[in-house]
Specification:
single chain; Carbamate kinase; 6-stranded parallel β-sheet; 8 strands; binds adenosine-5'-diphosphate; binds aspartic acid; binds magnesium ion
């Protein structure tokens, strides 16, 4: 067992602005020297925004480029809070978004799900580049890994199934040598690739699943799903003031919260550790 390997996942909410990305770097600074694989989702609600780009393209509303531009502007605005104006990340991010522009210049592909995956996956490619570049700036050496080189799937676009033997083999071959005490490895949640090397996605909210895939294939010691809140609160702090942290939460109460609309998913406590971002 490679029992010292750890896997951390930071979702879109945890990296939705420059301040939170800085906070993530502060947290990770405490883990210097750890063999750590980091999985990130797209920034904030980027996936929803890219879905709208896909739909506008399919419906040929003429709004697809405009919607894409809004996504790009939000990313560049976030960069301003993290990097100097001449930083290399501006160019590499632009190159990443160009892939979508090329797709939009073509007629909509007849297979909606295929086209969706090629476009929406760019959210994670962009966010992972930004976080990796910021970690490097914060003197936390980080190897950016393309999850598509590891997470091998069938070609059921938008809900691709993992091909476990190939994924396991690729994780051992391309991740293990990079997972040293000198650098972190950072990769994207949600995305994989088919045997024809086309990008696939694992289904909405799939980044937690990606973290579990890597944890399993690397035989990790543990996996932490970080959240940008101090714990489970009495209500969503984005919607309500004066929320308080629940110090104890029974399984039954958690189920009740989901009944009343909370997006808490209950996972048997086998392998799962949820860690909380302090003081945000
Ligand atoms: P991600 O998958 O992007 O990490 P989630 O979808 O798990 O994030 O959402 C995290 C967000 O959930 C928090 O930022 C918080 O605003 C919201 N939230 C909603 N209900 C609660 C609650 N009862 N306690 C804590 N956070 C909550
Ligand atoms: N970005 C993807 C989504 O919003 C995956 C995830 O966040 O888990 O569904
Ligand atoms: Mg999520």
């Amino acid at each position: 067992m490679n029992s010292d390997i750890r896997v951390f996942k930071f979702g879109g909410a945890s990296i939705r602005d420059a301040e939170r990305i800085q906070k993530v770097a502060d947290i990770l600074a405490n883990y210097k020297g750890t063999r750590l694989l980091i999985v990130v989702s797209a920034l904030g609600k980027t996936t929803n925004a890219l879905e709208k780009v896909v739909d506008a393209h399919v419906a040929q509303t003429g709004k697809a480029f405009e919607l894409l531009n809004e996504v790009k502007i939000a990313h560049y605005k976030l960069l301003e809070g993290l990097f100097e104006p001449n930083a290399e990340i501006y160019t590499s991010l632009n190159d990443t978004f160009v892939e979508i522009e090329w797709a939009l210049e073509e007629e909509p592909h007849e297979d909606y799900d295929y086209m969706y995956d090629q476009i929406v996956s760019v959210g994670e490619l962009a966010s992972s580049q930004i976080v990796a570049a910021y970690l490097a700036k914060a003197e936390l050496p980080t190897h950016w890994l393309d999850a598509r080189d590891v997470v091998r799937t069938d070609n059921l676009y938008r809900s691709a199934g993992v091909i476990w033997d190939e994924t396991m083999e690729a994780a051992k071959r391309s991740v293990l040598p990079e997972l040293t005490n000198e650098q972190f490895v950072l990769t994207q949640g949600f995305i994989g690739s088919s045997s024809e090397n086309f990008t696939t996605t694992l289904g909405r909210e799939g980044s937690d699943y990606t973290a579990a895939i890597f944890s399993y294939c690397l035989d990790a010691k543990d996996m932490s799903i970080w959240k940008d809140v101090p714990g489970v609160l009495t209500a969503d702090p984005r919607l309500f003031e004066n929320v308080t942290k629940l110090d104890r939460l029974s399984y039954r109460e958690a189920i009740e919260m989901t009944y009343y609309g909370a997006k808490v998913r209950i996972i048997p406590p086998l392998f799962f550790l949820i860690a909380w971002m302090p003081k945000i």
